[in-house]
Structures are given as structure tokens and as C-alpha cells.
Amino acid sequence: MHRIRVGKFELLPSERVLSLDGKALELGARAFDLLVVLVEHQGRLASKATLIERVWPRVVVDENNLPAQIASLRRVLGAGAIRTVPGFGYRLDLPVSSEDLLEPPAAARSTDRAAAPLPLSVPRPAWPSRLGPLIGRAQELQAVQAALRRCSLLTVVGPAGIGKTRIAQEILAGNAEDDGIPTAWVSLEALTEPQHVASAIGLALGLSLPDGVEGFTALRKALELNAVLLILDGAERVRDALATPLATLLMHTQGIRALVTSQVPLGIAGETVYRLGALPVPRACPPDEDCARYASVELFVQRAKAADQRFELTGANNSLVTDICRRLDGNPLAIELAAVRVPALGLSGLLDRLDDRFRLLHLSGPTADPRHAALLAAFDWSYSLLSADEQHVFDRLGAFVGSFTLQTAARCIVSERIDTAEAIDLIGRLVDRSLVTVLPEEPPRYLLLETARHYALNRLTTRQELPAAWERVSASLLQLLDTAFEEYWSLDEALWLHRYAPEIDNVRAAIDWAARHNGERAVALYGSAWPLFVETDLCAEGRDRFDQTVVLLSDSLPRARVARFWQAVATYDSTRQLDRARYAAELATRMDSECGDLRAHYYDLMLLAVNWRGNDVAARAAADAARQLEDPTWPARLLAYGALTEGALLMSASEWAKARAAYQRAVKFGLLTSERQALAATVSIVELDIASGNLNAALQLGRPLALSLRHSGRRETRFELLGLNFSALLLAGEPAEARDTGAELYALARLDPSRLYTVLDAMALLACLDQRFEVAARVLECADRARKDRGQARPRPVEEHICALVRQRVACERCAPLGDGPAERAPLEEAAACALALGLS
User: Which residues are CB-neighbours of 219 under 8 A, at least 6 positions away?
Assistant: First the structure.
């Protein structure tokens, strides 16, 4: 029986009872179901759609029912128990604890922690709305499903517009409805650089890939024992970068399968290729009833009827429809584009235009595939039917590599003759004409499918307008990022990410373009983009782009922009490469002081302080200077960062009570806008309890928190907390549990071995407890070397205490100073040192 503590209440889901102090409380059936869903999310945002789907399954209800049931729950649980996130959903703000609820699956409780699969919570993706049922593809769909059951890699191949993505969407929808193995949708169409393929897959899986590890290697380690279906859509552009790594990934994992859509096969061993052909087309003019059974005609009729409800397939127009479908060679996209023009042109006019375009196309030269000709012709005449302003808007939208908002697009379009309102209206007209796709998100985002985007890019290139279009796009994105930067400090974390995370592909492309054509813009984009890269766990990419942009700095650039550039560098490098982080923070501090930006100056000083940790005088001076600037009315996220830094410095100075007060302030501020910061502050309190010798308190907080983080996706925070629990268990004399925690740490570090250096001192202590003092000495040497390589002045308090303890024990046993040993002994790498301490090598 599950007994779940929800604040001061006790919840028994199987008994459908909520009680307080042993007394059952009155709660309606819907309200009870709603509470169960909120408890399952354990403090995470539950969307309105999720709540309605779970509480009212297979029932169409008024959305107003949801707040009514929330109000019922609040009357029982308390007014502050459930937080409303306007426009998105609700979040339970009461603590949830239950061993039954939080206990990991049996596989994860295995004593072989290194071999346990990492739990995946694959985000459900948004894909373009399917307009009506899948027509004429029942056999193909069954064949693809059957092939997927037999093989690990299936590539659906066909020309543009033939329906590859549509088949893949149906597979995705079927898996989601069946609630079977996790299925991740990975759109490869927007990628401009092959090296982003692995990070795109990781993002679709809800995984953040570690620094210093090749992307597909990290994926292989993360997915080694998991069962997942990867749907990789639009692979032709990154074929060379995808083929070999994907083959290796499938070869070295047990349950991974891949469905790929591409215009060409990947050409690797073990690949099953399914060639998707055109829809069946009548070869002559059959009787009316026979004509309607052809899938191409059925699709045409459906789309024409959607454009004009009066349209019907009759004996009078049967031959015209048949001829149109035949001349379009059964290409679904070409048929859809043609059908929506029926209200404007009529069938005869449509056929005449199509015929003209074919002749023009053939005059321009042969094509490799007649279906490509049909598709290009369809775009040509569809484009010719647009007004001059509509053509201008369509062309400019081709400069976006990913989805976009109306506001961002409008800024790229406005001119002397087109204002913002008209720009938005023009985009809406393109949506009506099926040239722009609306993604089912709130607020909505818009997208040019890849074929449409390439057509638009060709138009821009032909007219020599592409540089001007990219100039407008990069300027629009800089304006967006500047707004995102300001909102970052005060907007709720979930809302901020929902609003700005989808811009990552456009931001990448804008930085790449600006680095080649507009150095000042590239520097500005890099600086304002750092919150986006940090919050989407792409710090490694941010660091990698340093070399791309640092060469563009000059004395002529605006001082505030250069200051934000160095602030970004310091943020990316903080706790990773402290020397460069300190240098960057010093530059940002000086420049923001000159510019008079107090909030930026405050953040820079706190960055400098945290990266001077270990040098108490320099760190304290930076923090004191920041505190003199601090304004209590500043945004909560900024004040939380200051409190976290203050707590770290006070802990280093052994001022335990003051450090705890600072961390508690950080928790308070973090709860207002940033779950990540509140969690970081809580983990810091665990570290504080260990450093001050209060091991029972540390474990009392750290153990249940570590369990709750197993399914949170916050990999770095989980690693830090496990490292602290590992140290506390060793110091508390609980070696068995400590060994299990150490194995869990080592398994998690397969995703990011660069973090292992923070637990090397504790690993050395474990070796001491096992009476393996030579091993302890070697591991400790590795820890010292790792800190020096990263510019860390001295260990953190817990590390320092454990390090001194190990040195004392090793010295007593060896009767020789630590560091004396065989000269020929090779130094240990960090991963090898951990494995040696754990007895895994």
C-alpha cells in the first residue's frame, strides 16, 4: 500500500483516502484524482492538458471545471498548497515524501549500480497538426510498423513531399496512445551544423550531454540499457555526420531502435530501407466510383473540400481531378498545394496553370526525378498566385532555420509599406495557403517546412536579398535575446524556458551568420544568449563558441556589449576553468562599473567572488563590494545568486550560522522564480551540515532529496548531491551504503566524467576504509592534480577535511610522506582513479 506524505496530510491512492492526523477528509472524486496527478509531478509544473487528460479521460469537458476542482483542493490543503502558473497549469507546492512513491525500479536497485539503466522521462514533442486522417497509406504504415519490430534501424526513403514525415508522425502518435516504450521525435531539418546532431537527440530525450565527451559516446553510455524508439526526421542534410555514429550507437545498446526519414539511405550495415512511393494515380479516366477509390484522388478531394465545402467529385469534374493527380505524379505535398487553389482558380484554371509550369520547368533543364519537377512546379505556380507583399513575407521567412513567433517574424518583415499588424496578417494568409505551418503550442509558433524553406531561400538568393534577410533576422533575434535576458531574472523558470528555449536553432544560425558578416552583432548575440544556453544545459556549446567570437572584439564596440560578452564567458567557465572565469569576470566587472549598470556589476562581482573561492581575501573583497550595491527590490533570481555566493564564502570561512542564513535566503528567493536555484541552495545546506560536522542532519536531508532527483533530469545537481551523501556516509561510518552511493555516482559520471574530480577525496577515503592505502595515496594525488589543472586554489571545506583525514591515515600506514613512491608509476586518470577506489578495475 502506498502511503504518501503530502505536507502534513497522508494520501493513500489505492484506498482513495486523504487524511489529516488520522481523520479522513471529504474530497470529491475528481479533486482526488487531480491531487494524485499533482503528487506524481512532485513539485513540477503539470499542464492543463495533462490534468484534463488524466482526470477526465475520453470525456470532453469545459476547461472551467479544472479551476473549480483546484479551488476544492485548496479549501482542504490550504490556499498556498497549489500554485497557479498562468496560461500553463498548476504546481503542488507541498513537500511530497514516500519510500513507495520515490523508490526506484527494481533494475535501479541492483547492487550493480554501474549497469543500471538511467531513467528516461522523454518529453512529448509537438509536431505539425495532422490535417485529417492518413490517406492511402494503410499498407505502408503496417509495413513500416512490421519492419520496426524486426530490425533496429529502418530508413524511410523518398523524394521531398512524398509523405515520409507524415508516416513517422503516425508511428509517433500510435506509440504515444499505446503508452509503450518511450519514443523521441528528433527533427534534424533545422540543424545547420553536423556536430549538433547528438545534442538534438539528447534534447529530445530530455538528456543534457556532458562537457568533454563526444556526443554519441555520451548517448551510448546514457542509453546502454534503455528501450527507446528514436524517430530522426529529415536526415538527408546531416547524413554523413549521422550514419556511422548512429550505427555505433545501435550496435552498443540493447533496446534502442531508430526510424529515420531521409531522401537518401544512410548506407550503413544493418540498415533496412523502405522506399515510400507516390500515392496511387488513375492511369486513365475511370468511372466515378472507381476514381474516388484512388488515394491521390481521395487526398485531393479532401483538401479541396477543406478549402471549399461546396466542392464535390462528380462525373463532370472527374476527368479534371484525375488529370491533375496524374500530372502531379501522386506526390502528396504537390496534391495538397494544388487542391487548396481550387476555390481561386477552378479545376480547369488549375490544370492550365500546372501545365504551363511543367513546360517552363522542362525548358529550364532536366531533373533527376519527375516528382521533384512536379513539386517544384507546384511551388512555382503556388508562389505566383501570391501578392507581391505575400511573396516578400514568404521569402523573408525562409531565413529562419527553426520555428518562430509572430512577433519575431514581424520584426523581420516590417518596412515602409508593411507595418507590424499587416505583417502578422500576411503570415496568417500564408498559413491559410499551407505555405506556413502552425505548431500546436501555446502561444503558437510557426514554421516553414524544409521544402518550402529551401524554395524561399532560392528566391532570396536569386534576387540577391539573402544577406539583407539575414541582417534583419539576426537583428530581430538580438532584440528577442535582449528581452529574454531582462526577463530571465524575474520570470518564472518554467515560463521563461517555454517561451525562449524553442529559439535555440535560430540563435545558433544567427551567431554563425553574424560571425562571418557582422562582428559587432555576433558579440552582442553571444553575450545576450548565455541564459538560454545555460538553462537548456548547453554550456559546453557556449564555451565552444568562445573562439568563434572572441576574435571579433575591438575597442570600437559598445562597452556594455563587450561587458556582457565577458560575463557570458565567466558564467560558462565558472567552477569548470576558474582561471579564465576569473579573468572574464574581472573584465566584465570593470566595464559594467564604467557603464553604470549596477545589476550587471553586482552579478559580475559575485561571479568573481565564487571563482576566487579558496582565496578568502580576494573572494571576500569581491563579495563585499557586491553587497554594497545590493538592492532588496532587485529580481529574485539575481538576489538568489548573491545569497548562494555569500553562503559558499561563509562556509569556506567556517561561519556556519551565517552561511546557513544565506542559503536559506537563497531558497526563499529561488522558490519565487527558479526551482533550479532553490534546489542548488538546498544541496548547499547538505554540504554545510557535513562541513560543520552535523552528519545526521546532512543525511536526513540528503537521502530523500537524492531519491527525488533520480527522475528529475537535473543531472549536475544530482551528481553534486550524491557526492555529498557519499562523503557524509563515509564520515558517519556507513561504508556499505557509501559504497552503493559511490557506484551510483560512478555510473552517473559516465555522462560527464569531468565532474569526477570533486569526489576523488572521498574515493580515497573509501580506499582507506578498505585498508588499501597505496590506492588511497594514488587517488589523492589524482585529486590534487585535478584541482590544480582547473585553477582551484584549495579544496572546498568538505573536500579539505576528507583530504586531511586521508593524508593522516596514509602517512601513518606508509611511514612516508604522501607523494613519495615509485617514480615510474603512471598518474591515474580521474575515471580510472574512481574505478580503482570502488574496486571496479
Answer: 198, 201, 202, 205, 207, 209, 249
pLDDT tens track for 380-392: 767 887 889 999 9
> Which residues on adjacent β-strands are paired with residue 47?
89
Surface-to-core class of residue 817, CB atoms within 10 Å of its CB (0-12 exposed, 13-18 middle, 19+ buried): exposed
Grid coordinates representing 721 are 548531491
152 close to 146: Cβ distance less than 8 angstroms? no
Q: At what angle do helices 388-397 and 450-462 cross, to 10 degrees?
A: 110
What are the cell numbers at 645? 555566493
pLDDT, position 487: 95
Length of the chain: 841
Rounded distance between C-alpha atoms, residue 768 and residue 241, angstroms:
46
Torsion of the alpha carbons at 90, 96, 99 and 104, rounded to the nearest 10: 40
Q: Does residue 602 sit in helix, strand or coil?
A: helix
For residues 44 and 477, give the distance between their C-alpha atoms in angstroms, rounded to a whole number: 29
**CA-to-CA dists, residue 293 to 313, 339, 613, angstroms:** 12, 17, 74
The confidence score (pLDDT) of residue 481 equals 97
The C-alpha angle with vertex 225 and arms to 223 and 229, in degrees rounded to 5, equals 60
Type of residue at 174: G
Please give the average per-residue pLDDT across 508-516, as a whole number.
95
Question: 578 or 347, which is more confident?
Answer: 347
Q: How far apart are CA 191 and CA 505, in angstroms?
A: 7
> pTM of the entire structure?
0.72
**Sign of the C-alpha dihedral, residues 248, 253, 257, 258?**
negative
> What type of residue sits at position 118?
L
Whole-number pLDDT of residue 287: 60
What one-character-per-residue DSSP string does 722-754 give?
Answer: HHHHHHHHHHTT-HHHHHHHHHHHHHHTTS-GG
Contact predicate 718/708, CB 8 Å? no
Q: Which DSSP string corresponds to 99-111?
A: HHHHPPPGGGGSS
Cα dihedral sign for 586, 592, 595, 596?
negative
**DSSP code, position 404:** B
Coil vs helix vs strand at 19: strand
User: Cα(449)–Cα(442) distance, rounded to whole angstroms?
Assistant: 19
Least confident span in 98-102, 181-185, 374-378, 644-648: 98-102
Cα–Cα dist 411/640, whole Å: 34
In angstroms and rounded to an integer, the radius of gyration of the C-alpha atoms of the chain is 30
Cis status of the peptide bond prior to 797, with omega within 30 of 0: no
Amino acid type, 806: V
Give me 93's grid cell.
Answer: 507546492
- 139 in Cβ contact with 729 (< 8 Å): no
User: In terms of pLDDT, which residue wins out, 289 or 635?
Assistant: 635
The residue among 533, 371, 541, 358 whose CA lies nearest residue 451 is: 371
What string of DSSP letters covers 567-587? HHHHHHHTTTSHHHHHHHHHH
Q: Report yes or no: 746 and 834 within 8 Å, Cβ to Cβ.
A: yes
Query: Who contacts 454 (Cβ-Cβ below 8 Å, separation ≥6)?
Result: 398
How many other β-carbons are positioned within 10 Å of the β-carbon of residue 578? Answer: 22
> How far apart, in whole angstroms, are the C-alpha atoms of residue 720 and residue 785?
20
Distances in Å between the Cα of 70 and the Cα atoms of 11, 30, 33, 47 are 17, 10, 11, 13
* Region 266-274 average pLDDT: 88
Under a CB-based contact definition with an 8 Å cutoff, are residues 439 and 402 in contact?
no
Of 108-112, 215-219, 259-263, 587-591, the one with minimum mean pLDDT is 108-112
Lowest mean pLDDT among 207-221, 475-489, 498-512, 559-573: 207-221
pLDDT at 302 over 50: yes
